[in-house]
Structure formats: structure tokens, C-alpha cells
Amino acid sequence: MQKKNMTKSKYKRKQLLIILIVLIALISLVVIFGRYVTNSINNYFLRSSEFYFESDKLSENGTTLQVDNWSGVDDYTITINMNSRKNNIETATYDIPYSISYSCSDNVICNLSKTEGIIYASNNSDYFNLTITPNTQLRNGDRVVVDIEVNSTGEYKKTLKGQFILVVGQENITYQITDEARNPYLELSITNTLSYYTVRESFGSYNQGDRIDTDTYLALSDSDKSKCYSGEVRIEFNPQEVLLDMTSEVYNEAKDIGTTTINGEVYINSFTINIEAISSVDIRFYKVDVNKDYTYPNNNNDSIIKVTTT
């Protein structure tokens, strides 16, 4: 009889344990669902009030963007575009003020172009810059982490966040695209962090493929300089999406220009340029659809313009 009672007692304890686990799971689901409902209600309320507070690089849940092959020597500037649009038709009809805060890892100093801003209803856009400056010698593989938070400070409240990671890499050629929806054009910036030149055509005591440092290159004659290069890149794009600014000084020095014919008209779709050592160039492209935002790097890591080293 005693053994039977002990069996019943163990069975009841198991039942209680199972019930307890189920209750804990239910409570967790209720909390998560409650947060979801609260956020949904809040977002619905904000939308019904024509409150739109958005950014190209920040979001409510927080975004993470990583830039590889940063030189770790030069300043790096992040441009954050803000807007008060739901889409191309629906926009906020009143000004939206906001505040900006940030935190940086100890190996850099960060400076904001401003700590407060206003997205005016007249154009529904604004922007600010954060410049990152190394405060110590950085080596390959070192990382810089910057967190940015923007809070609307008017009648309606919303917070947008983003984390930016810069990784110091070997000397390289990198690029970025600065753009915003409704901008008629975008800016392609290509940076060459290589600190040397490569001999393309033999001359004097130098053979094809030899590397020479910047000081040696600068002392060469113009004729010998033309036989060397540092960063040579091929730029390819679809002229049905973006059109090269033909007045660009960079284009005047381009070579191996490629073209395509669209509806009987000839358009440029590719070209090659040289970029001096430890320098950068900016190239303007006009957008066929001004409502597009071709900012790069982006969350999808897709670029409207293909840039490759040759």
C-alpha cells in the first residue's frame, strides 16, 4: 500500500512539473505578444497622425553596417540621411525635430556635424555627418565600433538606431555611393589606400611589375609617370538606371570606354580610370528614377554600380 502511495506521489510531482513548464512558456508568449501588440498599436497611432520618421541607415530595431579594408589612418565620415516620408506620396505635413547621440570605441574620436536637427515639412529630408578619427595606431584586423541613436523630440516619440563597424584591412581600393530618394543624382566615391605605384611599361632601371613608393614616383618625369599606375578600376553600370555626368573631369581621363545602344541612342555603360596613390575620386551619376535610393553599402549589400580593380 505504501509503495502504491509513493508511485502516486511521484506521478503528481511530474504532473506539477509539466504544468509549471507550460505556465512559464505561456507567460513568455504573453509578454512577447504583448510587446508586439504595443509596438503595433504605437506604430498605427503614429501613422494615423501622419508621423513618419525614417532614415537610410538607421531603423527602430537597429541596423548593422560593416565597412572592410578601412585604412585606419584617414578620417571616415558617415552621412546619415533622415526623412519624414511614408512613400513618394504620403509625407509628414509638419516639422519633426530630433536629437542625435552616439558612442564610439576607445580607439577613435567621433565628431557630429550637429547634435540636433529638424526634418522640415517643406522638403521632408535632413542629414547629419559623423566623422571618425583614429586616436591611436591601428593595425590590420583592428575594429572600430560606432553606435548612433536618433530620437524624435516633438509631440510624437520614436527612436532609430544603427551600429557601424569599420575593420582595418590591407591597403586596398574601396568605394561607396552617397544617395537619397528624390535626389536627381548620386555620388560614387572611390578611395585608393595603396601607398605605391606599379610599373606598367619598363623604363630606366625599372621593369614591368616593379613597385615604387610615392616619393620615387613623384620625382619621375611626366613621361615615366605615365608608365606607372597605382589604382586602376573598371566602372560598369546600366544606363537605363543611371547616366554618367559627361562633364566630369574623371571622365575626361577615362579609357576603354564601353557603350550600348538603347532605342537607337548610344550610351556609355563602362570605362576605366586610374586613381593616384592614397587618394580618392568622386563621380556623379544622374538617376533615371529619382525616387530610388542607391546608397551603398546598404542592408542588402547590392550596388547599382560595379567597381572592380583591373
What does this structure look like?
It is a single chain. By secondary structure, this protein is of the alpha+beta class. The strands form five sheets. A five-stranded mixed beta sheet has the order 2-9-8-4-6, with no helix packed on it. The radius of gyration is 28 Å and the shape is globular. The N terminus is likely disordered.
Radius of gyration: 28 Å
Helix and strand sequence: HEEEEEEEEEEEEEHHEEEHEEEE
How many helices? The count is 4
Number of strands: 20
Mean pLDDT over the full residue set: 86
Ends distance: 89 Å
Q: Tell me the β content.
A: 35-45%
Largest sheet: 5 strands, mixed
**Anisotropy-based shape:** globular
Query: Structural class from helices and strands?
Result: alpha+beta
Name the strands of the widest sheet in spatial order. 2-9-8-4-6
Report the helical percentage. 10-25%
Uncertain ranges: 1-6, 29-41
